[in-house]
Design a protein that fits this description.
about 150 residues; alpha+beta; Ubiquitin-like (UB roll)
Length: about 150
C-alpha cells in the first residue's frame, strides 16, 4: 500500500507543469507523412500544439495518441531523433524529428453487446460517445469503456 501511495505521489509530482523560465519544450517535426491528407495533417498538428512535451517518451506517445484519435489506429511512430547539442544552442523550443507511418484510416463499424443480464444492450451502447461509422477515435472508445466501468 505504501508503494502505491509513493508511486501515485511521484506520478502527480512529475506531471505538474513547471513554470521556470528555463523550461525546454520539445517541438514535434513529423516526417514521412506525405500520404496523410492535408486536412487530417493540419488537425493532427493543431492537436499536437495544444499540449507541450518535455521528454521524448511522452512526445512519441502523444504523437501516437493524436494519430489514433484521428482514425490512424495502427500508426507506427519510430524513436524520436534529437538534434545535436550544437543545433540546440540554448533554445527554449527544440525540434525533434519523428518518423511516422500513419497507415490506413479506420472507421468504427459498430459496437454490439450480447448476453447482458443487468442492462439492456442499448443502455450499454449509449455509454460510448462515438457513433457507428464515425472515424475511429481511441479517446472516445476509452471514455466509453470508463463509462461502462462506472455503470
Amino acid at each position: 500500500m505504501l508503494r502505491l501511495h509513493l508511486a501515485l505521489s511521484l506520478l502527480i509530482f512529475t506531471s505538474l507543469p513547471t513554470h521556470a523560465s528555463d523550461t525546454v519544450i520539445l517541438e514535434p517535426i513529423l516526417k514521412n507523412v506525405e500520404g496523410v491528407p492535408g486536412a487530417d495533417l493540419r488537425a493532427i498538428v493543431q492537436d499536437l500544439d495544444k499540449t507541450p512535451s518535455r521528454n521524448l517518451d511522452e512526445l512519441a506517445e502523444r504523437v501516437r495518441f493524436v494519430f489514433q484519435k484521428h482514425g490512424y489506429f495502427k500508426v507506427l511512430v519510430e524513436e524520436p531523433v534529437m538534434p545535436t547539442t550544437k543545433q540546440i544552442d540554448n533554445k527554449k523550443s527544440i525540434p525533434v524529428s519523428l518518423f511516422v507511418t500513419a497507415g490506413q484510416k479506420y472507421r468504427l463499424r459498430d459496437i454490439r453487446f450480447t448476453d447482458s443480464s443487468v442492462l439492456f444492450p442499448s443502455e450499454l451502447r449509449a455509454a460510448f460517445p462515438i457513433e457507428d461509422g464515425d472515424i475511429f477515435d481511441r479517446a472516445k472508445v476509452a471514455l466509453g469503456l470508463e463509462s461502462l466501468r462506472k455503470l
